[in-house]
Design the sequence.
């Protein structure tokens, strides 16, 4: 796999377009070796070179490209985990809308009793926290915080929590301020 000679030459020409440094056979050889060791794809490497000159500039080495590719891959897989979680949440919440889940039913029962007895209401805390994305578990706004199971046959699955992560509560306070 890795990059073909043509792709490497193209990549180095892009770099030269940015910094004006001419590259020769030695560069092609060195970059080819790094590309193979670090498992670059051409698209990733091209993106990394462009990002380097757009944001950092300076001397471009293969290590810089590798670091950017690694960071891109991690960001992508984080994003995929979030999307996977959200699609699972949607699958859980989707069907059986007409049947109220047990805690909901009990709450409305308690509420009607409380109303008939004229009880004082304690305001629910925490909806503010739900208005922002959780920086800890990346639950989207409006979604409950969740934790990922690390063992057992449901390993990797997300389980909604009844409380919010502290960092989310802090974040919502910051955004409200
Ligand atoms: Zn959270």
Sequence:
């Amino acid at each position: 796999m890795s990059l073909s000679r043509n792709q490497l030459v193209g990549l180095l020409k892009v770099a030269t377009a940015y910094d004006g440094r001419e590259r020769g056979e030695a560069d092609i050889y060195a970059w080819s070796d790094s590309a193979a060791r670090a498992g670059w794809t051409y698209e990733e490497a091209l993106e990394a070179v462009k990002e380097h000159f757009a944001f950092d500039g300076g001397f471009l080495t293969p290590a810089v490209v590798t670091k950017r590719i690694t960071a891109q891959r991690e960001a992508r897989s984080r994003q995929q985990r979030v999307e996977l979680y959200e699609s699972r949440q949607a699958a859980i919440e989707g069907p059986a809308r007409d049947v109220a889940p047990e805690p909901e039913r009990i709450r409305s029962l308690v509420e009607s009793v409380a109303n008939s007895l004229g009880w004082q209401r304690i305001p629910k805390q925490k909806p503010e926290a739900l208005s922002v994305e959780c920086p800890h578990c990346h639950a989207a706004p409006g979604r409950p915080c969740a934790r990922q199971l690390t063992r057992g046959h449901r390993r990797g699955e997300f389980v909604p929590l009844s409380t919010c992560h502290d960092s989310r509560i802090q974040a919502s306070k910051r955004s409200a301020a």
Q: What stands out?
A: Residues 134, 136-137, 139, 145, 165, 168 surround zinc ion (CB under 6 Å). Residues 127-176 form one domain.
